[in-house]
Here is the input.
Amino acid sequence: MLPAMKILVIEDDRSAVDYLAKAFREAGHTVDCATDGLEGYGLAQESSYDVLVVDRMLPKMDGLSLIRSLREQGVATPALILSALGQVDDRVKGLRAGGDDYLPKPYAFSELLARVEALGRRKGAASKGEATTLAVGDLVLDRLARRVTRGGQEIVMQPREFRLLEFLMQHAGQVVTRTMLLEGVWDYHFDPQTNVIDVHVSRLRAKIDRGSDKPLLHTVRGAGYMVRDSAR
Amino acid sequence: MTALGKLWRTTAFRVTLINLGVFVLFAIMAFGYFGWNARRIINNEIASTIDAEIKGLSEQYEQGGIRRLASAVEQRASQPGASLYLVTDFTGRRVAGNISALAPGVLDRPGSYETNYQATDEADRPRGRALVRVFVLQSGFRVVVGRDILERERLGAAARRTFAWTVMMIVVLGGLAGLLITKRVLRRVDAMTDATERIMAGNIGQRLPGSGSGDEFDRLATHLNTMLDRIGELMTGLQHVSDNIAHDLKTPLTRLRNRAEGALRLASSPDDYRRALEGCIEESDNLIRVFNALLTIARLESGQSQGGMTEFDAAGVIRDVGELYDPIAEEAGAKLAIHAPDNLPLRGSRELVGQALANLIDNAIKYGAPDSAKGAGEIAVSARRAAGGVEFIVADRGPGVPESERERVVKRFERLESARTRSGFGLGLSLASAVAKLHHGSLVLEDNQPGLRVRLTIPDAPAT
Here is the structure.
């Protein structure tokens, strides 16, 4: 389904590293590990990875300096920062240092996996993100005309529904978690506590999958949602 | 460190030494100038006396030649005083005068000299010093007129002695004073060092001593003590928060454990185990959410999260959040009515204000929606400009919160008895209140007759 990615995990907690490596491998990816900042920096510079998963607090060289140094060296590998600090300003600092995503601890692995896969894909298809039309199966979204059609039939959408679908289709074939949706579509980073996102998604599903025997918007249990052409 | 080393390292002692050096240098300059000037004046005086003598003697010589000169010299030389005379013939033999010998070579050339001499009547005394002027007459006779400079030398010696004394007094008294000051400073600093060492050793209640004189050390001690008080307050606050978190997390942790234990005891098929494990994951996800919410509240309450204050449109935020919750409200049989001006600029944290509003609206939907079909419960959400900030109001038509309970429900994990059966952790209002507190605003619960009205006031954050 997804092409396998090469992931570098830089984290000083041994058991966390082992768990992450095992879980990423089960998801079909290749994983290298480093347990301190310098080792991680060396690995990230030497070989090419699709995604870096960097703990913020590391011995020898902290995560933010590591990413900053890599960016100065011209290494543009997408990096996800893991941190015990989850405040807005911490996130801003992390992204400013050159990180591409920020996930506060404790986190669910499904969330981490979804975000890492989104980052890895972004690297592979940076240009695709700017395409003017997105298509999954017979569902077509025209970003310029702001029009959505399914099998040639136009579907009328509210602006927010359009953006929700746009975000899901940009990540077609990938798991998109509820927090990713809240971040990407509403630009909030808090935990909504209730099933607000689920309600929005089910409304969207009612619009695009209604009367179709081939649903495109799938719920991934315990993780989130995915837009995927089930026929393929 | 030796006592001397310690002394040497104090600023007070070094300043004393530098001061002493400066004073000694000043004394040297003052006395040097005085000595040089006095010597010059005396020399001038002697020279003019000699000039006058020469004038008188040359008159005698012009009137009566060498003979008259010799007798005049003889007569003058016999009078007491510091004047010196000598007339010699061309062989250097003394003809008249009170000098018996001069330093060798002085008589050979005319001119002014400062030289040693021996007086005729004081042959047994050591040689004196004099300023002399030597003339050579046409006949080869030499005339020497001079003046003893003993007075000048005495004056010089007296000046040197005074100078030596002065310097000695400066060094001794200044040094003593410096030592005393240094010792005093050291004593104060040592007292402070001891106090800080005791504080570092764990005696947190200890404070720095003051002498009560209000000097700079007292001021420093007062400031440091204020700082220690503040640190103490923060530590107590932190302790309080971590105690609370530890306590608050015990409940969901116990639930998680019970669930796992129950599964171990009762499950009989792989399906049962799978369900139990899924239940545990769900429970721990809840735990993570509670933990994150608690951490956020704790950090907001400690005032640590000062970053992220920007200018944003509060009306936009209220519309966004309203739109986010609109479908849920609809499903719950309520209706969200949003009243806000087109544009409502506010300086603060967009993220946190959004989260607080989300929590308030979520609460209104959960607890404010009518259970029975008594008509659609309207939830009125509004924002308006109020003194120095923005006032948000979320009002529902639900059962409301009794006045006696209003203070309690804002606290962490506190919920109304009637709400216990619903989902939620009882952290929503606490978080909204913490957001208000961080912005120096307020969260007030009021009666909506019927229902609950929550008034969240967020003043503009000061521009940074």
